[in-house]
Write a structure and sequence with these properties.
The chain is α+β, with helices and mostly antiparallel strands and about 130 residues long. About 25% of the residues lie in helices and about 45% in strands. Belongs to the AHA1 family.
Amino acid sequence: MITIKSTINASIDKVWEFWNKPEHITKWAFASPEWHSPRAENDLREGGKFSTTMAAKDGSMSFDFGGEYTLVKENQAINYTMGDGRKTEITFNETPEGVEIIEKFDPESQNPEEMQRAGWQAILDNFKSYVENN
């Protein structure tokens, strides 16, 4: 598994809401300013499904990122299986500095692991910036 992490300077309730509500997901779920997320759906419960469209702003490409939840513990943890069968584990830990988010995910086989780590970290960094500035 690949691990990324970040500490968000905000309350656990705000972090949880911004992580999971579609109206917030569309504001942060992309890795660079040339991309955006025009659509997000989220049924946050074990057995529930989620899907986020990530698209280049110039219209040159887009893809849907989605899966099914296997574990949901409010303000603590989310696990899911992606559409291709890979697993992801996310923990939310309250610390004196804010909420530490740790994401662990199975790599895919098409791109180097370092590229995958950098891409997922960029999205997590975008989330941090969005939460701390809104």
